[in-house]
Design brief:
heterotrimer, A alpha/beta (321), B alpha/beta (203), C alpha+beta (348), A: 321 residues, Elongation Factor Tu (Ef-tu), domain 3, 3 domains, 17 strands, 18% helix, 34% strand, C: 348 residues, alpha+beta, 3-stranded antiparallel β-sheet, 13 helices, binds protoporphyrin IX containing FE, binds FE2/S2 (inorganic) cluster
Chain lengths: 321, 203, 348
């Protein structure tokens, strides 16, 4: 069965700047009906029609998962990026009709946890906002540690501190505040699960420290969405559809497949879910792997590629699509 | 690779390994009978400061005093030797309830002991894949009767008679971590009384 | 009411019976003249009005009697329904999914009205009228999964998704093909499938799991599975094997047509939104050989499938001893004529 996701037609109901970098978007169903509920940590894939070109970017849902009237996402402007966030910031206004996917959760809570320890950096706060509302409604035991650059760039920090005064700890980089990670980890009762969402450096730091302190891998959850990176344009031959296609500088391989009407499955579009895995038939050149799905060994073997984030540099690439 | 050579089996049947030293501020080791040898083997490779962070719970069963002295000589932070798993159960539950993340768990000895301690550990929130096991000693099985739900310990023969309801049960390889037991199913259900001769399969 | 519910039993005097209409819509599981395990998953979309695939949850003439049988089984052995503590939210998910689907698809039988979190559920066939607070267990007589599955045909498993696997952490299992919920609770996809022959080596479970881990909200899937049962028994549990096992030995060429049943499971898979768990309803349909033979295509095909089935499968499914007798009976209905593709009877 081909993947792709069940879609929802929505209308932008509100566009609200949160600070210099982050803007919040609210979607309601265009037909006025209820939206599906979701589980904290889920994302939706937003379709953007940008100058005749379709861009699909995943964003974590941050609204109350039980709220069926509206979904909310927050988008951080990335001037270096390929333009998805710029599109959201500059072209999306109240009243615009858009298409988004049904919620998909690749960062779900382990509901067996005796305690949920959440560690957020920057815009990584958004999935936790939904998770905290879910847990608050079901008497879950959670605690948030949230690092922000400055108070003014700390999206939702104040609001969260007010709502959950005993469970939220904010750290301001500009004031030299940092999470005392070692002591935080040592003190956790058996059955605690850690969730990390933020920059790669933060994820690696927490995972490394936890592993060194003997935490089991299964108790550590993290979400790192890669935005597909730009790169040198390249050409790909598709063995099944018998086409040769060009991948542009600001386009991912997956987007190029879609632009050429090639049926290509996906879920996360961020190198995490494995759904887009594609066999490499022939490769004369270097695969630039950027996913977290394949193992290092599989990366080296060069028999598989994840088109949502990975690229190619060289003479010939033939894929099994 | 397991020290005991078990025949290849189905996916629900647990497989056991050989202890390796793991990072952690606290270590809990639960063993019965010849399981003591797994701890003593670990001691030959482990750094000396391991034992000062270690709590050993040991049930000698038929080995009596054989390993007690050697285990105590490791000078663990806490040492307990008791007559049965039942007797040690409260102590084990208490240890888990007071423990913190990072606790390393090592289980050694018979399948029945490892299975029951594994269940206590997973109930406390440690994933089963993070718990080390090393099989030593008897291969007798802890069996659950699927009909009356009673557990028969130390089963060495197949088929065997359920110690609770008296049905003739055959020994399956299907294993439940939650029961810490293999499954026993009536062997003469379709032809009552037609029971094959019982064979000693486990020692 | 549009459906006439049968008054029938699945034990003791076995008065269970399919009406001609029920036979015609029976989900015969073989789309060709042979059978082997495969990753036979397809979208669970509305197909063929009147068939068991028309709605998310099929309600048929056996509904009321099946629910009575389930209540008897549960009274006898409450361990057939279990839910580990972290699965309560998935139970509410399931309750919500079923109530919304049934009220939408069978408005003359079921209704659901919501006033915020105060829900009013009416189940006319079972004469239930319940007002409760959604997500508040104290307002229902049972936990949410048990409550709704005492009112829904078929067994139910709820799977928690974590560590790239599915975990059988809750279920209502009273009409299973010889496996124990009590024993299997807490196992993962590979562990609970461990006793199945061949399928693992064929790579079926690895591929099926990969598919399920990516199962999406709003895009349910389904597959058919089957086995053989002597007498219209729903409770073919291992727990009671010593009680129903002896029935398997009483078949003769004279009575096999009326006593031997093909038992088909319509298995569906739904991603549950609030918990991210997966619901796996296993709906069993029973049809005795005699009734199946009223459809010539099915008679021919069943004979060919059973004739060629590997012994390992016949042993696992528990009918190897009766297979010769089945073939003797079925061969009379196979004239060697070709059969059409697909599972449905040929249109007259
Ligand atoms: C995710 C939900 C599922 C659950 C809870 C489930 C559960 C089970 C159980 C309990 C058994 C009996 C094993 C025994 O003998 O003890 C079984 C058998 C089997 N399952 Fe699944 N299963 C699921 C999904 C699937 C899927 C998606 C496939 C796809 C290929 C599959 C293929 C099979 C097969 C081929 C058998 C053997 C059946 C027979 O020959 O009668 N299962 N399943
Ligand atoms: S779409 Fe998820 S890994 Fe590529």
């Amino acid at each position: 069965m081909s993947a792709g996701t069940a879609k929802l037609n929505v209308t932008v109901a509100e566009v609200k700047p949160i600070n210099d970098l982050v803007t919040r978007f609210k979607f309601i169903r265009t037909d006025g009906g209820e939206l599906p509920t979701f589980s904290g940590g889920a994302h939706t894939v937003v379709e953007m029609q940008d100058d005749g070109f379709t861009r699909l970017n995943p964003y974590s849902l941050m609204s109350d998962p039980a709220d069926r009237d509206a979904y909310m996402i927050s988008v951080r402007r990335d001037d270096q990026g390929r333009g998805g966030s710029k599109f959201m910031h500059s072209k999306v206004a109240e009243g615009l009709e858009m298409v988004i996917s049904n919620p998909v959760n690749l960062f779900s809570l382990d509901l067996r946890a005796k305690k949920h320890l959440m560690i957020a950096g920057g815009i990584g706060i958004t999935p936790f906002m939904a998770q905290m509302q879910q847990l608050a409604a079901t008497n879950g035991h959670f605690e948030l540690h949230y690092s922000v650059r400055t108070a003014s760039l700390g999206s939702y920090a104040e609001q969260l501190s007010e709502r959950f005064p005993n469970r939220v700890n904010i750290y301001h980089d500009d004031l030299g505040q940092a999470i005392d990670l070692e002591n935080l980890l040592i003190g956790q009762p058996l059955g605690t699960h850690i969730y990390i969402c933020g920059p790669k450096g933060m994820i690696d730091w927490v995972r490394g420290k936890a592993a060194a302190l003997g935490w089991p891998r299964e108790a550590i959850h993290y979400e790192e969405f890669l935005a597909p990176a730009s790169g040198k344009p390249f050409e790909v031959r598709l063995a099944i559809s018998n086409k040769t296609i060009q991948v542009g500088e600001n386009q991912s391989l997956l987007e190029a497949l879609e632009a050429n009407d090639v049926d290509a499955p996906y879920l996360c579009r961020g190198g995490a879910c494995g759904q887009c895995e594609t066999a490499v038939v022939e490769c004369d050149g270097e695969l630039i792997h950027r996913d977290h799905w394949l193992s290092d060994e599989q990366h080296r073997a060069g028999k598989l590629i994840m088109p949502c984030v990975s690229r190619f540099d060289g003479k010939t690439l033939v894929l099994d699509r | 690779m397991s020290k005991t050579d078990f025949p290849l089996s189905i996916d629900s049947r647990p497989v056991y390994g050989v202890f390796e030293m793991r990072a952690g501020k606290h270590h809990l080791m639960i063993a019965d009978a010849e399981g003591a040898e797994a701890l003593l083997d670990l001691a030959t490779a482990a750094p000396a400061d391991l034992w000062a962070k270690t709590h050993i719970i040991y049930i000698p069963k038929t080995t009596g005093k054989k390993y007690l002295g050697k285990l105590q000589a490791l000078s663990p932070d806490q040492f307990y030797a008791g007559p049965s798993y039942e007797a040690a159960k409260q102590r084990i539950a208490d240890t888990f309830s007071k423990a913190h993340m990072g606790l390393q768990v090592y289980l050694a000895g018979t399948e029945g002991l490892m299975g029951q301690a594994m269940y206590a550990a997973t109930s406390a929130g440690i994933p089963h894949t993070a718990i080390q096991t090393e099989h030593r000693g008897s291969t007798a099985r802890r069996m659950q009767c699927v009909h009356c739900k009673g557990i028969t310990e130390d089963v060495t023969h197949d088929p065997f008679i359920c110690s609770h309801c008296g049905l003739n049960l055959f020994v399956r390889d299907h294993y439940s971590r939650r029961m810490a037991a293999f499954q026993g199913v009536c062997i003469d259900a379709e032809d009552p009384g037609n029971v094959p001769k019982s064979v000693g399969l486990f020692k | 009411m549009t459906i006439q519910f049968n008054d029938e039993t699945f034990r003791d005097d076995f008065s269970f019976k399919n009406s001609p209409a029920a036979i015609k819509r029976f989900p015969f599981p073989f789309h060709e003249d042979s059978y082997m395990y495969s990753v036979n998953l397809e979208p669970h979309t509305k197909t063929r009005p009147g068939s068991p695939f028309e709605f998310a949850f099929d309600v048929d003439e056996h509904y009321v009697s099946e629910m009575k049988d389930r209540a008897v089984t549960l009274a006898d052995d409450p361990l057939r329904c279990q839910s580990l503590p972290h699965m309560t939210l998935a139970g509410w998910d399931l309750l919500e999914y079923i109530m919304e689907a049934k009220a939408r698809d069978y408005p003359d039988l079921f209704s659901l009205t919501k006033d915020g979190n105060i829900w009013h559920w009416e189940n006319k066939p079972l004469e239930i009228d319940q007002t409760f607070i959604f997500l508040d267990e104290s307002t229902l007589p049972y936990g949410p999964m048990e409550y709704i599955t005492r009112q829904t045909q078929g067994d139910f498993a709820l799977l928690d998704q974590r560590d790239d696997n599915l975990w059988l952490d809750a279920g209502m299992i009273t009409s299973q093909a010889d496996w124990s919920l009590d024993f299997n609770v807490g196992m993962n996809f590979f562990e609970w499938h461990a006793p199945v022959p061949k399928a693992n080596e064929m790579g079926i479970f690895v591929r099926a799991l990969k598919f399920l881990l990516n199962l999406q909200q709003g895009a349910p899937a389904r597959r058919l599975n089957w086995t053989m049962t002597v007498n219209p028994l729903l409770d073919t549990s291992p727990e009671n094997y010593h009680k129903w096992g002896p029935m398997k030995t009483g078949l003769t060429i004279e009575n096999i047509g009326s006593k031997q049943y093909l038992r088909v499971e319509l298995q569906t898979l739904f991603r549950l939104p609030r918990s991210n768990a997966i619901a796996f309803p296993i709906r069993a349909y029973l049809c005795r050989f005699e009734d199946l033979m009223t459809v010539p295509k099915w008679g021919r095909r069943l004979h060919r499938v059973l004739r060629d089935i590997p012994d390992e499968l016949a042993t696992y499914k528990g009918f190897i001893d009766n297979k010769p007798l089945m073939l003797e009976y079925l061969s009379r209905f196979d004239d060697g004529a070709p059969t059409s593709d697909g599972i449905w009877p040929d249109e007259a």
